[in-house]
Amino acid sequence: MTDGLPKWVDIAVIPLINVLLALILSALVVWMIGEDPVRAMTILVNGAVGSAYGWGYTLFYATNFVFTGLGVAVAFHARLFNIGGEGQAALGGLGVALAMLYVPWPHWSLALVGATVAAALFGAAWAAIPAYLQAKRGSHIVITTIMFNFIAAALMVYLLSRVLLVPGAGGSPETARFAEATHLPNAFALFPWMGWSRSTPLNVSFFLALLACVGVWVLIWRTRLGYEIRAFGHSEPAAIYAGISPVRITMIAMLISGGLCGLMATNAVLGEAERLVIDPVQGAGFVGIAVALMGRSHPFGVFLAALLFGALYQGGGELQFEMPSVSRELILVIQALVILFTGALDNMVRMPLEKVFVSARRRPAPPEPTSPKGADNDPIAKVEP
């Protein structure tokens, strides 16, 4: 039970109602600009899940959002608001690029292991500094992680334009392409009979995202460390009284959070771009915040929310192509409405449902039928007709 609600209502029903309300309001916005909302929503849905091509991009975007959403969710459990997923994912991409450019990997499977370790280490290292400032100096984690996003962006520009720039590349801020042996097989190479195209960006890192979901679930709900993280997040004074170190939990939670955000680079840098470009994250770090909020910081909820936002990204691109009057800004409005209803206006749906479930539990059971007074002792009443 959560806040008077069953867990399945909190994880599935409330987010679904929030999404439906957001889509209804989005349809009204489309209607107000003079377009057919039914046609717009049909294009959006078909563009996202109506073909193998759409599914390929939807699941590719969802893979990015799973990693960043899980990273934010782990921090949420410790009551830490990690807004630095953007910078941590960017530094994860730097780790992947260095591992791929300077280590001769003989096969993509080994390259994926090396990229996973490098991405997690670089993402965790970038999260360690704000975590230390929070744990030891009292600096607010929101402010420091936001600042480190800008520092990461500036660092990436410098490295790609001065240090890792390919000679004779015409000034394009990107590294050399990774060796062909490190290229991850995409959905077409793995499952060609399912109708995927050769250019599908969906790759084997999708399965790594699924493993990350399972790993986070085991960590948070089946380990002592996960119990300490949740206890610290629910009540810091009670956790201290129980012997849990705030400094230790803050550092560990943020290191895990940053490592998970950094893992996004295995999909975007190694799996899709096959080189490090100037902006490999493209806002996925900030989307991860909405994914974690909508998924209630539960891995299964995060996965479903990532699918939704992946569909919005892919379907929004198709909608902009099919209906030129629908600008990119309107697609952002639709995404913002989903975030608004699942975050800021969550209680608008939650509180009425709580009242319904609380009143249903308090409703008295009907009285059981009783025998007439004295019937048990009356020998005549016991005789069957």
Please outline what is shown here.
The chain is mainly α and 385 residues long.
How is this structure best described in words?
This protein has 385 residues and is an all-alpha fold. Helix content is 70%, strand content 0%. The chain has 16 helices and no strands. α1 runs antiparallel to α15 and α4 packs antiparallel against α5. The N and C termini lie far apart (51 Å).
Q: What overall form do the CA principal axes indicate? A: globular
Q: What value does the average pLDDT take? A: 89
Helix content: 55-70%
Order of helices and strands: HHHHHHHHHHHHHHHH
Q: For this entry, what is the oligomeric state of its chains?
A: single chain
User: What structural category characterises the helix and strand content?
Assistant: mainly alpha
Tally of helical segments: 16
Strand fraction: under 5%
Distance between the amino and carboxyl termini: 51 Å
Query: How big is the Rg?
Result: 26 Å
What attributes does this structure have?
16 helices, 70% helix, disordered C terminus, 385 residues, mainly alpha, globular, 0% strand
Question: Which helices and strands appear, and what pairs or packs with what?
Answer:
Elements: H1 7-32, H2 37-49, H3 52-77, H4 85-102, H5 108-137, H6 141-163, H7 187-190, H8 205-222, H9 224-234, H10 236-241, H11 246-262, H12 264-273, H13 284-294, H14 299-322, H15 328-342, H16 346-362
Helix pairs in contact: 1-2, 1-15, 2-3, 2-14, 3-8, 3-11, 3-12, 3-13, 3-14, 4-5, 4-6, 4-11, 4-12, 4-13, 5-6, 5-11, 5-12, 8-9, 8-14, 9-11, 13-14, 14-15
